[in-house]
Amino acid sequence: METYKKKHVLLIDDNDIDNYITKHIITRSQIAEKITIKKSAIEALEYLETIKENIEEFPEIIFLDIRMPMMDGFEFLDELIKFPIVANKQCEVLMLSSSNDQNDIDRAFQYSIVKKYFTKPLKMEMLVGF
User: Is-above-0.70 flag for pTM?
Assistant: First the structure.
């Protein structure tokens, strides 16, 4: 029987191919029992709003893209940090972006909930330690 370290991982990315690759790598690494995919930051916030009181259902890790239409990853983070579960450090964010711009990296780490910054695509070795 597989042993999972996290109950729930949320992927937020508007790119279907990136979501497919990321889900595949997370599945192979067996770090999560459940993987949810949302194709926009707005859709992700709406989803999180419906489960914000449920600590068992709320994702422990969120993989977040930066460049998305309508609401980017930084705008999402501005809203995410308002959730009580997030404020209580029940959730952490791993940035997964095509950008290797140092300004984006520095800006991401201004949020205390951002624990890692990965450049796409996700690879198995990036998940060591989770």
Answer: yes
